[in-house]
Each structure stands twice: as C-alpha cells, then as structure tokens.
TrEMBL record:
<dbReference type="GO" id="GO:0032580">
    <property type="term" value="C:Golgi cisterna membrane"/>
</dbReference>
<protein>
    <recommendedName>
        <fullName>UDP-glucuronate 4-epimerase</fullName>
        <ecNumber>5.1.3.6</ecNumber>
    </recommendedName>
</protein>
<keyword id="KW-0472">Membrane</keyword>
<dbReference type="GO" id="GO:0050378">
    <property type="term" value="F:UDP-glucuronate 4-epimerase activity"/>
</dbReference>
<comment type="subunit">
    <text>Homodimer.</text>
</comment>
<keyword id="KW-0812">Transmembrane</keyword>
<comment type="similarity">
    <text>Belongs to the NAD(P)-dependent epimerase/dehydratase family.</text>
</comment>
<keyword id="KW-1133">Transmembrane helix</keyword>
<keyword id="KW-0520">NAD</keyword>
<keyword id="KW-0413">Isomerase</keyword>
<feature type="domain" description="NAD-dependent epimerase/dehydratase">
    <location>
        <begin position="21"/>
        <end position="255"/>
    </location>
</feature>
Length: 359
C-alpha cells in the first residue's frame, strides 16, 4: 500500500512509555489539535479523515498541511471502510484510538439526517469491529456530546443525570454511541472512555458554529441571528476552550490503559467511563456577541428571534468533578481570553477583509 511507509513513520513513538494513537477526524477542529499535542510530546499519531464537505474542505486541507509539517500523516478514508481499518491496524499496532470523526452540528440533522446515521452509528460500529479484531486491542477514547442531556434543564449536568430526552437527531446518535460502545466494552472487553464535550471553540475552529459565523458576519457587516429561548430568556452555553479540551482528551488517553497490555496479557476488566468536559461557567449568547464586538472593534447588527425548535437546547452547564478527580482535568481559559485567541487566529488566517469590506 502506498501510504504504508508514511504511516509507519508517523506512528513512531519518541518518548519512553509513549503510545501510538489512531486519531479519526484528524483533519477536523478537535482532531487536528489533539493530533498536534500528542505528536509534540513524542507519541506516535496517524490521522484518518474523509474530508467531507459539511463545511469548507479547504480549512480541513489547511489543517492537514499543518499536521504534515509537524510529522503527522493523515490517511484519506472513511471510518465505514472496514478493509481500510483492518489494513491500518495490520500496519501499526495502535495502542489507542482517539475517535473524533463524526457528523457534528445539531441543525444540519434537519437537512441530512442520514449523514448522522452513516458516521455516528454505522461508522462507529465499523470502527468498534476493527478495534475488537485488532491485536493488541486498542483503548478507545471518543467524543460524545453535552447534547445527550437534551431537554433536561436541571443544570449543572452530571454524568449520572438523565439522557433519555434527546432534542436533536445528532444528540440521539451520540446517545446511541454511548450504548454501542458500552456493548463493545462488556461483550468484547474493549476499554472505552466517552467524553461529553461542551461547546468547544478556538483557533482553527468550525465555521458552522455560532462564534465563528458571528465573527465572519460581523466583519462583513452582515446581520447575525441571535436566538432567544422560552419567555425571552437568553440562551447560554458552557463554552470550553480547545486547549482545555485537548488536555482532557490526553488525560483520558493516559488513564485508559490498553486492554491487551504490552505483553498481550489482560489487566483485569476493561473500564467503561464517561466524563463531562466543560468549563463550568456558562455565558449567554448576547454576552458572547459583546465580547466578539470588543475584540473585533466592530458593532454587530443583531436579529433577535425566538428559537425555532430545530435541535438547540436553552442552556448547558457541566459539572466536571469526575473529570477533575480521575483525569486531572482543570479548564483554565475563560471565554474572554479564549475568544481573543480565536479572533487573532481568524484575522491572521482570513485577513480583515474576508469576503467583503468592513466599516
Ligand atoms: P469536525 O467536523 O471539525 O471534525 C470531524 C472530522 O471528522 C471532520 O474533519 C470530518 O471530515 C471527519 N469525518 C466525519 N465523518 C467521517 C467519516 N465517516 N469517516 C472519516 N472521517 C469523517 O468536528 P469537531 O468539532 O472537531 O468535533 C470532533 C468530535 O467532537 C465530533 O465527534 C463531534 O461530534 C464532537 N463534539 C464536538 C463539539 C464541539 O463543540 N466542537 C461538541 C460536542 C461534541
């Protein structure tokens, strides 16, 4: 196979006790950051991504180029491709899989529901099958979502709170993912850690997310739509900075062991864990807009509308005591500081006049 040599080099471990990690969704927002962080500390990393066009594929290509410069090779392919996965595990005995490939976004589920089933359910099962058959069996850390708390308005959310009322098909597929991975844990002994990310933002972020599209529209002098919840209550999110999420992902990989162990011996029952990774300080969307206005030095034109009921929940807020205790997770970046870094990146990447003049 033509990429075989490249992935062997990319998977080389350059520190004692290091791991070799297959990162799915490596050309994505979170995947690219996690891949770089692992590579920097000397772990072996191979990426996998299908470069779909859910949002601007050129941004994914740019992340890929950045990773390549830093020694991370990304294989272009789909997690539904069982043969490709088997080939990858044949070439590299991955100790860990960081599974971040998914169809993200809650609103797009109204337009293309099957893309969620394809990546978040069928793709997940194909990946679990490949992990089950791999030797050694890798430990799996994967991205669930705060959206599993759905219509539950009892904040802050703890991991044991109810998750049986998804508000979107996206949330339903993430919840299904938790059940699917649990099955692979207890039947096949795969080590599984599910991470419920809370609204992740930062440099190299996702253009479909509000903070990103607001920035673009504000700079282009276009109006932004700010949704309001029931009884005109402002929506709020527990915005979590990318570097904090990356630390949570790496803390999870470091504590997840690997099911078969280096000598091929089982080390007791494989763990099944679920953690919230949030910031524990929700901020309303109007406050988010004011912070962006300050950093961009441009006033936003706001359209305030009632939430149309297309999958959004009114507010999110994480209780992170489990992640704090078991992963050493401790978010340190507040929204003000994190958005400053995002805006700095945005302006250096797109320039001040991205897509039109500003006034
Ligand atoms: P992203 O869309 O930037 O990254 C996902 C990547 O996976 C993309 O590059 C995409 O091309 C790739 N991909 C999608 N389907 C694939 C498939 N079938 N095969 C191979 N590659 C595929 O999204 P992100 O924000 O980096 O999210 C990473 C993970 O975290 C996702 O599972 C997402 O659902 C979850 N998550 C993200 C947030 C957030 O705020 N960003 C919040 C909660 C959960």
């Amino acid at each position: 196979i033509q990429w075989e040599k490249q992935i062997r080099v990319s998977a080389e471990i350059h520190r004692d006790g290091g791991m070799s990690v297959l990162v799915t969704g490596a050309a994505g927002f979170v995947g690219s950051h996690v891949s770089l962080a692992l590579k920097r500390r000397g772990d072996g990393v191979v990426g996998l991504d299908n470069f779909n066009d859910y949002y601007d594929p050129s941004l994914k290509k740019a992340r890929k180029a950045l990773l390549k410069t830093n020694g991370v090779f990304i294989v272009e392919g789909d997690i539904n491709d069982a043969k490709l996965l088997a080939n990858l595990f044949d070439v590299v005995p991955f100790t860990h899989v960081m599974h971040l490939a998914a169809q993200a976004g809650v609103r797009y589920a109204m337009e293309n529901p099957n893309s969620y089933v394809h990546s978040n359910i069928a793709g997940l099962v194909t990946l679990m099958e490949a992990c089950k058959s791999a030797n050694p069996q890798p430990s799996i850390v994967w991205a669930s979502s705060s959206s599993v708390y759905g219509l539950n308005e009892n904040v802050p959310f703890s991991e044991l709170d109810r998750t049986d009322q998804p508000a979107s098909l996206y949330a339903a597929t993430k919840k299904a993912g938790e059940e699917i991975t649990h099955t692979y844990n207890h039947i096949y002994g795969l080590s599984i850690t599910g991470l419920r990310f809370f609204t992740v933002y930062g440099p190299w972020g996702r253009p479909d997310m509000a903070y990103f599209s607001f920035t673009r529209n504000i700079l282009q002098g276009k109006p932004i739509t700010v949704y309001r919840g029931k009884n005109r209550v402002d929506l709020a999110r527990d915005f979590t900075y990318i570097d904090d999420i990356v630390k949570g992902c790496i803390g999870s990989l470091d504590t997840s062991g690997n099911s078969t162990g280096s000598g091929g011996k089982k080390r007791g029952p494989a763990p099944f864990r679920i953690f919230n990774l949030g910031n524990t300080s929700p901020v309303t969307v109007p406050t988010l807009v004011s912070i962006l206005e300050r950093h961009l030095k441009v006033k936003a034109k706001r359209n305030i509308l009632d939430m149309p009921g297309n999958g959004d929940v009114p507010f999110t807020h994480a209780n992170i005591s489990s992640a704090r205790m078991e992963l050493g997770y401790k978010p340190t970046t507040d929204l003000q500081t994190g958005l400053k870094k995002f805006v700095k990146w945005y302006l250096s990447y797109y320039g001040y006049n991205h897509g039109g003049a500003i006034n």
